[in-house]
Amino acid sequence: MKDILQKLLILRTPGIGPVKYRNLLNEYETDEFILEHLDLSQDFIDSVKREMDKAFDMGIEYISDTDSRYPIGLKNVKNHPIVITARGNVDTLSKKCVSIVGTRHSTAAGMNFVSEIAKSFAEHNFAIVSGMAMGTDTAAHRGALSVDGNAQTIAVLAGGVDYIWPLENESLYYEILDRGAVISEMPVGMMPNAQNFVQRNRWVAALSDSLIVGEADEKSGSMTTARFAIDYEKRVFAVPGHPSDARSVGPNSLIKSGVATMCMSVKDFFDDKKETKSKKISNPENEILDKLGMIPVSESVLANLVKKSISEIKSDLVVLELQGLIRKQDGGYVLN
After folding, report:
1. Domain boundary among 268, 297, 317
2. Chain centre to alpha carbon of residue 76
3. Domain span including residue 248
4. Nearest to residue 136, comparing CAs of 165, 179, 107, 166?
5. 95-150 pLDDT, tens per residue?
6. By Cβ atoms counted within 10 A, which residue in 15, 60, 154, 232 is the most buried?
7. Residue 11 shares a structural domain with residue 147
8. Are 113 and 209 members of one domain?
9. Given a cut of 70, is residue 272 above it in pLDDT?
10. Has this prediction a pTM greater than 0.85?
């Protein structure tokens, strides 16, 4: 831990980030010699030690870029964090990853699509990387968590790894801790700020070989993530949408400009010839299943999606529940 303490003392010093740290290391050769020239106060040293004590008590690990557990995708990016914190199953960081991002204001159909894509990748032993925001990020994480396993998804946070944001995703945060990992480059206990979200997006893009962009406004964090991915020469996929929907402008523009490949279904990534439960049931019920995923959809929304009245779909919902294909959750229906 002495090595980590020395690195943190340098990195927590105002004005020193990864670039400045590497310049200092080139000049002074070791962390110990750098610290001799910084002349840090005892109060500052004690504050960093308190952060480490808090992390230890919470089961948070510090992982430097010289550690074999440091994510290889992140390490290969210029000016990557010198030290990250991780909470949960650190083994998740060594899995093959795919990153999925999109708007916080995603449609039910958009979230269901993303959830199914994430589920398919998790079934093929990929960890799903996202930012734990509402909407698309949540759908991606939950799609991965719908598959059995204890290393299913990675949430990259803009604040400290212990700082749950948004608060609405508190339950999701703890589910990820149980069956995945939460990581950050920020100090333990730090509240996120606007600039840190940009950095968070940078690392979401870096962690994986591929990035999938769901619904996203043209000037959004998701599009920033896509630009980072393009700069890092990652493969970028985008989910097309209706031209009149502002949430489709981002992915549609990526496809139109040729920097992203159109993503229409899981078949764009995997060609599994598996018979699904939905093929064994009648067409009206199958139509409802097509609109459901891991995000609860209310009866009224379902009725609108399948162009029927609520009374018309009630009997189909009962049949699907009895067959064990769907269940009620949070005032709506989800796939089992």
Report:
1. 268
2. 19
3. 90-268
4. 107
5. 999 999 999 999 989 999 999 999 999 999 999 999 999 999 999 999 999 999 99
6. 154
7. no
8. yes
9. no
10. no
